[in-house]
Amino acid sequence: MEDTIQFSIKDYLTVLRKRLIWIILAAVVAGAVAAVFGEFVIADKYTCSLTCLLGDSNMSAAEYSQLAKNTERSQYVLGTRDVVEKVVVKAHIIDSETGEPAVLEMLKATSISADTNRGSYKISVTTGDPDVSYAMVIAYRDLMPTLIEENHLFVATVTECSEEAPLSPSNGGRTLKYGAIGFLIGGVIMYGIFVVNKILDVTIYTVEDLTAATDIPIIGMIPRYTGTVEGSPQSGMRNPIGKNN
């Protein structure tokens, strides 16, 4: 006899049908917990951004061939500590605990993504304070000519910039998102538990289980009788068979 019984698609569907209520219950509980976590534990985040384009359609062939390299270099330089520190000082962002420029916090909050094919890069600042995010982006914009000159970067043109501090968080809708993810994960985990339990269960319940678990031929079966035996107390007879009045 094998250690496990082979599972078919029908078996998976059977587990799903029999345990559907428990799977849905687990999914609902997990979704509710995840939604509460997203709503009350995850803080609001506000993002402001600045997009710069290197060169234009009038670039020479030599300049265009260096476009990807110059874009990557600008991405690297503008994200260094020295540059971020200048931006923080320009934006007057101070660490409330130390009274010093919040350089480390802004280094973590600032991300720069590059599109080497288009020859552009995007500076994004995400913090829990919309005014801080906006101040950082505006400082980057105002310092851009100086940063380009000091670091010998390829001349860039600001094509898009946040016009004001954001009013709504960039991670809004997280309650629904976390709830949906928790619902799916909870349901899948519970279903997986039932499937594994069924696979590891080698108890023989049906003829199909027996034929799947062994090659020994079945020569006969004893049917299950669900009625009553004549003469038993359940049959309605006063005296059982074999007893005299």
Describe this structure as you would to a colleague:
The protein has 245 residues and is α+β, with helices and mostly antiparallel strands. It has 2 domains: 9-38 and 173-220, no CATH class; 46-161, Alpha-Beta Plaits (2-Layer Sandwich), CATH 3.30.70. It is built from 9 helices and 4 strands, in the order ααβααααββαβαα. Helix 2 (20-40) packs antiparallel against helix 8, helix 5 crosses helix 6 (103-109) and helix 5 (81-91) crosses helix 7.
Helix content: 40-55%
Alpha carbon gap, first and last residue: 53 Å
Low-confidence runs: none
CATH architecture of the largest domain: 2-Layer Sandwich
Number of helices: 9
Give the ordered list of helices and strands. Answer: HHEHHHHEEHEHH
Per DSSP, what share of the residues sits in E-state strands of 2 or more residues?
Answer: 5-15%
- Round the Cα radius of gyration to an integer and report it: 35 Å
Counted beta strands:
4
Q: Enter the CATH topology name of the largest domain.
A: Alpha-Beta Plaits
Q: Spatial order of the strands in the main sheet?
A: 2-3-1-4
Biggest pleated sheet:
4 strands, antiparallel
Helix/strand/pairing class, anyone? alpha+beta
Average pLDDT, rounded to a whole number, is 86
Overall geometry comes to elongated
CATH class of the largest domain: Alpha Beta
Task: From the structure above, extract its key features.
245 residues, alpha+beta, Alpha-Beta Plaits, 2 domains, 4-stranded antiparallel sheet
